[in-house]
Amino acid sequence: MQTNFEKLSLQRIDIDGNVLGRFSTFAIEQQYTNTTDAVLEVTYTFPISASATVTGFTATVGEKFIHGKVKEKEEAKKDYEKAMLHGDSAYMMENSESNIFRMNIGKIAVGETVKIRIDYIDTFDIVDSTMRIMIPTLVPPRYKSNITDKLSYDTDSEIDYRGNIAITFDKDLKIKDIDCKTHNVRIEQNTVSARNIKLDKDFVLDVKLAEQSFSKGYIHSLPNGNNVVYLSFFPDIEVKTKHQPKDYVFVIDVSGSMMGYKLEQTKEAVIKCLRQLKQGDRLNIIPFESDYEFYSEKMVDFSAETCEKAKEYVKNLHVRGGTELLRPLQVSIQRFGKEKIIFLFTDGEVGNESEIAGWVRQNIGQNSLFVFGIDSSVNKKGLTEIAIAGRGKAEFIVRDEQIQETIVRQFTRVSSSNLFDIQLDKGKNKVIDKIEKTSVLFNHEFYDVLIETDTVADDFTLVCKTDDKSYSFAIPKDTLKQSALPLDKIYAAERIRRVEKYIEARPYAENKGYKEEIVEIAVVYQIDSKYTAFIAVNERDEKLTDIPDIQDTVLEKPAEWGMMQQPRIMGKIDLCAEACAMKYSESVVMKQIRKTVDRLCSTERPTDRLFRKICKCEKIMRTKGNYQALLDAIIKELEPHFASPSAEYQVFFDLIKRRSPLVYKEVEQRLKK
User: Fold this and answer.
1) Cβ–Cβ < 8 Å for 220, 228
2) pLDDT score, position 290
């Protein structure tokens, strides 16, 4: 799909990072240049790392440098609109959904270049002496998302803008090996870089460290005069070798977005999990899409025979329908006993991950939920939150990765999740506030706690128990390191996430007080949140009085995205193969085929074809060509939906209004007569 303008204003994106152990600072620079003959307002939707805290927002126009501020979202929008009405320019960034951000560049003059810089802090897990750095580059479509439903993805031609990534490692960090399975990288001394890359999949870098991790502590002053202490405990616990039978439920995403390599990789992962089970274990499988089904109505005792049957069932799974994730998770938690290990396999491309995480947190009980995210552009933040809510851990599998190591890691966590009575012994320290980033302790993985205190007077010790032994892990007060990084902002971000959990637990309440608390924290510490936005205003000497044309930045098509690769044709091929293998009557086969075809067809919205017509018509209108016949056809299709549009068509009309304003104006005038 081509944009309505000669060339997208977004020219390139540069991402530069500095890794200082587990902490890192990053800067994203987006460059926009108006190459059209009209004043533009440009929008761009993009992701930022799921674990990041955004700490800065600046704009550069020529030699002018404008520092952005965090304000309550509606106040920021008013400032943005007011600036444009007065002939000035404004640049606004808001957190729209999960880790999705929306940039608005209000009024770029003809020939003008605007550079936006976004600063953020990130932290990375270190597991098996390996640090995994994930930098998302694209927001893929999400099922039932009010944000991604409005985005446009290029499916027919090349997007002009590209990205550059450069990550520099602290010289004191002892690195054994560096591996990147997602991109071609260059390694020069202590810097890893990838140049001129398509922004169609996450950048994933695995850094193998030469030395074993150990417990560490950092200290930083707060604006109120207190200190924040960041404690990272690294437990070393004896793992029992005796097998304790467990119940396992495998929840498998078979929705349309899993088409292609993702489903094949999922099948491989599930089969490898089945091979980890032992005598005495029990299993069940729940594949889901718009609906779900059970492999068995009750738990199945594991044996060589039942394992083979389960593997054959998994091998024969096919994609169909949408991604209704909440209901199968509810069923997996509420049925089949009260103490299960649940493994979820999905790309996580849903728009209600906060609702799901909130429900899981309230209802997980003695169950544990472990997540496998499978995609080149996975919804890491949403899946991580769901796993944390489920007292488990999320792992992310990229293409061509050795899955076996990941599977073994999750099963090792299952064995170590029998730890209980996890307590922080604060000693003589006065703890004003405490935030534990997770409630579950895993062996040989960092357990992070943030403490607010007036002074540090004693050591901090983490204590826990297994069935037959107690353990303690101390961080002496004399080993706390003064951190130059703004740990106060990381602490503030964790406070915001804690308040968000209160809101998740009260989904039907107004939650006004909680939202006000989030806004207050974000404004005081100048960090991002759901209810605030970064705003920078460029007061111009020469005002731009023209009403700007709106240009929504078209996004790259996600790499090997199944739903965009002729789903009808691929689906029918799968159905033919499935029908041949089924030993049912013809009527049953045909009923199943019709049902599955309907679901497959529903993965492409009926408005997609119409939207392409509208974009084409808009382009003809702008070039003063003969558009009347095409417009008449468009109006005929829209007429039944205009007077009282459904929710889907209301979103569609809003999209037309923004993306194709000339067509929308003609449609509105004609249909209102």
Assistant:
1) yes
2) 83
Give me the phi and psi of 252, to 5 degrees please: -120, 125
Residue with the two structure tokens 């088409």? 259
Paired with 249 in beta bridges are 284, 342
Domain contains 450: yes
Phi, psi of 172, deg, nearest 5: -80, -10
Alpha-carbon 177 to chain mean position: 27
Q: Label residue 582 by pLDDT band (50, 70, 90).
A: very low
Enumerate the β-bridge partners of residue 474. Answer: 461
Backbone torsion region of residue 405, taken as left when φ is above 0, otherwise alpha when ψ lies between -120 and 50, otherwise beta: alpha
Q: Domain count for the chain, please give it.
A: 5
H-helix or E-strand spanning residue 252: strand 247-253
pLDDT at 375 over 50: yes
Report the distance separating Cα 449 and Cα 491, nearest Å. Answer: 10
CA 506, chain centre distance (Å)? 23
Render pLDDT for 256-279 as a digit per residue (tens, 0 to 9): 888 888 888 899 999 999 999 999
**CA-closest candidate to residue 415, choices 250, 245, 274:** 245
Same domain, 495 and 582: no
- Which residues are CB-contacts of 308 (< 8 A; sequence separation ≥ 6)? none
**pLDDT tens, position by position, 88-121:** 999 999 998 778 999 999 999 999 999 999 999 9
Give me the chain's average pLDDT, please: 86
CB-based burial, 85-100: b 16+ in 10 Å, e otherwise: eeebbbbbbbbbbbbb
Which residues are paired to 369 by β-bridges?
342
Amino acid at 577: A
Give pLDDT, residue 84: 95
The radius of gyration of the chain from alpha carbons, rounded to an integer in Å, stands at: 26
- What pLDDT score was predicted for residue 590? 53
Q: How far apart are CA 366 and CA 501, in angstroms?
A: 19
pLDDT(3) > 60: no
- Provide the 8-state DSSP code for 350: B
Residue labelled with tokens 């204003």: 9
User: What does pTM read for this prediction?
Assistant: 0.80
Residue-wise pLDDT for 78-88, tens only, equals 999 999 999 99
What is the amino acid identity at position 392? Answer: G
Q: Give the β-pairing of 162-169 and 10-20.
A: parallel
On whether both 653 and 535 belong to a single domain, the answer is no
Longest dimension (CA), the chain: 82
Alpha-carbon gap, residue 462 to 425, rounded angstroms? 6
Question: Which residues share a beta bridge with 350?
Answer: 143
300 with 386, same domain? yes
> Would you mind telling me the total number of residues written for the chain in this entry?
673
Which residues touch 650 (CB under 8 Å, ≥6 apart)? none
* 72: its two tokens: 């309550």
- Domain that includes residue 168, residue range: 10-211+528-552
Q: Where residue 255 sits, what CATH number does that domain have?
A: 3.40.50.410
- 100 DSSP β-pair partners: 47, 97
Rounded Cα–Cα distance for residues 293 and 298 (Å): 12
- Is the pLDDT at 167 greater than 90? The verdict is yes
Distance CA 127, CA 131 (A): 7
The pLDDT of residue 4 is: 42
Cβ-based neighbour number of residue 332 at 10 Å: 23
Percentage of residues in the chain with pLDDT exceeding 70? 89
* Mean pLDDT of the 619-623 span: 83
DSSP string, 436-471: ES-S---TTS-EEEEEEES---S-EEEEEE-SS-EE
